[in-house]
Specification:
The protein is of the alpha/beta class. The protein has 15 helices and 15 strands. It folds into two domains: 157 residues, Phosphoglycerate kinase, N-terminal domain (Rossmann fold); 204 residues, Phosphoglycerate kinase, N-terminal domain (Rossmann fold, 3-Layer(aba) Sandwich). Helix 9 crosses helix 10 and helix 11 packs parallel to helix 12.
Length: 394
């Protein structure tokens, strides 16, 4: 990584503003469903604490649209962080008035402070200089450890860098290094797996990955768009009709660049509104009244064979409707297949992909679990992100 990190500057006894990505999923009881994103910041937090730093952590949670909303409060995150960090975490709801800022600066050396949801303020997403300056005034150094939000040019990722010395945290450094390693000098053959619901954000990524991948396996709603482009009936499945022509051109391009663009050969049909499961059919027998909601057993076998031979694996997005157990088996299988290939370098990312990980023992079988969804996609496509570009060069 060509940017300075926390190991490149003097941090002794400094107040450090740390942008983390604690945008985790909370259940109905406001308990954290998956704390992977929080745990992956611990190396950075512990390193800073060993230097005598006072940590002022900033994050967003959900989409409160610029105003306070109790269901998006970071208070549950503060409680959880205290439990896994083994240290008191001071939660601060108000931090913009001069009196609030004086209180924050009076926390003793070595304290950990978590500020309330940044997106309770419109200045965050609008990257307003006044908001960024008030955040920056709380500290002496800024550390970006939120790879998952570094594709956003917000006050907490880009704006604060105008007012503070700004460097990368250990998680951000690892994200950049691992994804770059997988893409720049991949161990062959390279297999990319692309799923999820948002075809419009991933179709350009597929184009980019064709230049490096030996095989690209498609699942989820994005596969439906490609099936439609190939001429198959897709029933009531979610299809991005505006992307069908682009998908058709990519199918043609794949044959020219010698990249195997693999679509499902069989699928699980059903109705997500009612939870009805119809069963498995070949892709040329899709019922017009039903929806494609997962890959079928034949597809799992075909995808599994390709994954088993891979030297490098990049995966973003589930291949089925993971919110319903009946349609999550394909995604579970992809995790299993990746973990069975002990020789491959595997990079897995995306919020939905992380949320679909039901068996935690699979974690140890993955080389790098990226905390970024959109950030990972944009980094692969463009080679950098606004929140990374804003940091100091080495």
């Amino acid at each position: 990584m060509n940017k300075k990190t926390i190991k490149d500057i003097d941090l002794a006894d400094k107040r450090v503003l740390v942008r983390v990505d604690y945008n985790v999923t909370l259940d109905d009881g406001f308990a954290i469903s998956d704390d992977t994103r929080i745990r992956q910041t611990l190396p950075t937090l512990n390193y800073l604490l060993t230097k005598g730093c006072t940590l002022i952590l900033i994050s967003h949670l959900g989409r409160p649209e610029g105003k306070p909303d109790p269901k998006y409060s970071l208070l549950p995150v503060a409680r959880h962080l205290k439990a896994i960090l083994g240290k008191k975490v001071n939660f601060v709801k108000n931090y913009l008035t001069p009196a609030d800022q004086i209180k924050i600066k009076k926390f003793p050396k070595g304290s950990v402070v978590l500020l309330e949801n940044l997106r309770f303020y419109k200045g965050e997403e609008a990257n307003l200089p006044g908001f960024a300056k008030k955040l920056a005034s709380l500290a002496q150094v800024f550390v970006n450890d939120g790879f998952g939000v570094s594709h956003r040019a917000h006050a907490s990722t880009v704006g604060v860098t105008q007012y503070l010395p700004s460097v990368a945290g250990l998680l951000l450094e690892r994200e950049v290094d691992m994804i770059s390693k997988a893409l720049d000098k991949p161990k062959k053959p390279m297999v990319s797996i692309i799923g999820g619901a948002k075809t419009e954000t991933k179709i350009n990524l597929i184009d980019k990955l064709m230049e490096k991948s030996d095989s690209i396996l498609l699942g989820g709603c994005i596969a439906n768009t490609f099936l439609k482009a190939w001429g198959y009936e897709t029933g009531r499945s979610k299809v991005d009709h505006e992307a069908v022509e682009t998908a058709r051109s990519l199918l043609w391009k794949a044959s020219r660049v010698q990249c195997a663009l693999m679509l499902p050969s069989d699928v699980v049909l059903g109705n997500k509104e009612t939870g009805f499961v119809n069963g498995v059919v070949e892709v040329n027998k899709i019922d017009p009244s039903l929806q494609v909601l997962d890959i079928g057993p034949k597809t799992k076998a075909e995808f599994g064979h390709v994954i088993s031979r891979a030297g490098t694996i990049v995966w973003n997005g589930p291949v089925g409707l993971i919110e319903m157990k009946e349609f999550s088996r394909g995604t579970d299988f992809i995790f299993y297949a990746i973990c069975q290939n002990k020789e491959a370098v595997s990079v897995v990312g995306g919020g939905d992909t992380l949320a679909s990980l039901r068996k935690k023992e699979y974690l140890s079988g993955i080389t790098h679990l990226s905390t970024g969804g959109g950030a990972m996609l944009e980094f692969i496509e463009k080679g950098s992100l606004p929140g990374i570009d804003a940091l100091q060069d080495k």
